[in-house]
Input
Amino acid sequence: MEENDSTQVTLNQLQVHVKDLQKWQVSEEFAKQIENFTALPALYRHALNELENKIDILKTEWQARDGYSPIEHIKSRIKDPKSILHKMERKGHEFTLDNMEQHIHDIAGMRIVCAFVKDIYRLVDHLCAREDMRVLEIKDYIAHPKSNGYQSLHLIVAMPLVLLEGTRWVKAEIQLRTLAMDFWASMEHILYYKFDKQLPSHVAEELKEAARAADELDQKMLRLRREILELAERPAE
Ligand code: GTP
Ligand code: MG
Output
């Protein structure tokens, strides 16, 4: 999911990109398909709305039950058509709507930021057990950080959308992170953005060091929380 606030793909945007299609050397047939493509962003938007609603309910319930919600905040976006085409090209898929639906899993994307690492796993357990979605894939970059230091847990889920034509399963990517992981990933994106060369090794090493610092911060906060909870439970002297 790109660091992008846009939550709407408008018809207007889409038409601009149809004009761009020549540059992408897509087949005429696909260009036609793209022209008929306007229903698709709406479909993903509906799926994202449903997902936002589910998470919102959870947040309220957790808050009411425990006086604290593991979910700090959420952000969602629909991938813009140009990025979809870029990704299909990068992954070597022929430009067809079928391929797009099958292989591009983050057209609808949500980022859930939690306070503590434990909260992420609680939330994942909950999402895996739900009957109103299927978790298709889990990538745990928290247990196994990427070589640059990136940490997050990614889920690919599918959700049923009940339409006039019947039920359609729509995929979405959910990225779960702590506040510290989100800080690092957002900063890395800002620093790295538009830099398409290999990073000098000392810069890459310092970024990795910063990721370790974020990890230590997470662990320290968890320790402090445990200590505060224990103090709260101790009878007054
Ligand atoms: P893409 O990386 O999107 O082509 O797909 P993938 O199948 O490799 O998925 P992966 O789960 O590795 O990454 C998906 C998304 O996670 C990316 O689009 C980013 O939003 C985020 N992400 C992955 N790696 C990094 C990273 O090193 N830094 C930052 N800032 N974000 C990352
Ligand atoms: Mg990737």
